[in-house]
Amino acid sequence: MAINLLLDDEQKLIVDSAISFLADASPMSRVRMVSETADGIDHALWLGMVDMGWCGVHLPEDMGGLGLGWIELSLLQEQLGRHLACVPFFESIAMAATALRELPDSAPAQALLPQLASGELRAVLAMPPETEAALAHATPEGWRLDGCWAQVSAAAPADILLLPARSATGEWLLFAVGGNLTGLQVQAVTTIDATRRSATVHAQALALPDSACLARGAVLVAALARVRCLAAIALAAEQVGVAQQCLDLTLAYTAQRSQFGKAIAGFQAVKHRCAQMLVMVEAARSAVYGAACMADATTDAATLLLYAAQARVEATEAAQFCARESIQLHGGVGFTWEYDPHFYLRRSQANSQRLGAASVWLEQVAAQLLDAPAGELA
User: Whole-structure pTM over 0.90, yes or no?
Assistant: First the structure.
């Protein structure tokens, strides 16, 4: 299947407007300031994104969205990653809203989408296998939820938590839980990335009505599997933004840093390392754009997994490589707090473990290829 990775005029306009908006609304000085606040959320930036319609970029127009696709969402994710924007766009829109969109037969799930598209509500989704310790018990009044969901990003400021749990028979269920219920505790945890907060969610004898259960069974399992692949593509786009900014920071620094009477950007060894950074950035960007194109096409789960895994691995390697090279090429100041590369190293490292490490995705692809009939491997 041929894929056109060239952006059309509308997509170029989205990129240009995002670059301009974030340059003004989320400079690194503001990121540093917001990352030290209590909740770590840039509320003014979020409201600006709401006004621009970003929260509904890939949601249907009848739900208040823009009716665009995963390519457009990935373009926004790339620029948000480039600026380390302190907003829960990935958690609320790329993950939670996508999960609800993938449950068209669930009336409670669909009812939440307009509020997410408008930015009125912020939601987060905990993903298996982090939820293995969560159990749901049917009661005469509805459900009782007990368990723990570890490392749920942006859980503390979220209005709605989407929490998967198993029933006594092992069936998966998905619950929509408000953030201020008796029996629910959201405990912040310290991570290496100060620009993105995380928390552990605990539920103890949490009473929920029947309407809190959004989906269950095979339909839910299939939806969450697709959401994991789509979210991996969005996270890969963010990693591309991280890698690109590391390259830009390095080019700017080496152009003004002098040794022996000339800028170090003119040294062959520095040129070669920057060129390798560029090669990895462009390869990762192509993988992400290709995966986003396939996500917008009517594709089967196996094909989506292959493209999502490629984007996830390529972008993770590019972000980590470029962040390390940026620190090295900044010389003795590269690891200091006053310079920015360490923020990008932290984000790239933290992202490398989200939704499963690269090795997990490679193992899934290997299992899929090895289990396929011989004729399908060609």
Answer: yes
